[in-house]
Design brief:
The chain is 80% helix and 0% strand. The two termini are 41 Å apart. It contains five helices and no strands.
């Protein structure tokens, strides 16, 4: 599955470069024609994704806070107030800290690579090591692990370097 995703992303990058050449922008939405409805739908869809991710990420935080409230305070208006305050606090931090985006890139480099690649591969090896996995399969998984560690280290290094450069 990872191979299919890699092949898909790489082919999209190559096709984009072949179509746009040196005028290719790093953000795919900047390459879309602005006067077409399909482009606007793609751009708006791209804008909606972070909003839904924010809701998914903050839901466990809010639910744990709501569970810790006494029952008389666990009513809808207070819950809505808490969710709004969490949103405003996150927004304030993002505006006041100039390197907040870089900090999030740092967290993403470490946590996303760990959750998406490192942990599944390591757990697979741990769970099935006694089943006599073929050497080729173990080799491929080890290569994926080494590559993922390289990605995590590079992303972490780049984020820390950018953060230190802002000071």
């Amino acid at each position: 599955m990872f191979g299919l995703a890699t092949l898909s992303n790489t082919s999209m990058a190559v096709l984009g470069y072949l179509m746009f050449g040196h005028n290719l922008s790093s953000q795919i939405t900047l390459n879309l024609p602005s006067n077409k409805i399909s482009s606007k739908i793609a751009i708006y869809t791209t804008l909606i994704i972070p909003i839904s991710k924010y809701a998914l990420i903050t839901t466990p935080i809010v639910e744990s806070i709501e569970r810790s409230l006494p029952p008389k305070y666990n009513i809808r208006p207070i819950c809505l107030l808490m969710r709004t305050l969490l949103l405003l606090t996150s927004l304030t931090v993002a505006i006041l800290l100039p390197f907040f985006g870089i900090l999030m890139a740092l967290v993403g480099a470490v946590i996303n690579v760990s959750n998406s690649v490192l942990m599944p591969c390591a757990c697979f090896l741990r769970m099935f090591r006694s089943h006599g996995l073929p050497r080729i399969e173990v080799g491929i998984i080890v290569v994926i692990l080494v590559f993922s560690i390289g990605v995590a280290v590079t992303g972490t290094y780049t984020s820390v370097k950018e953060m230190l450069g802002k000071f």
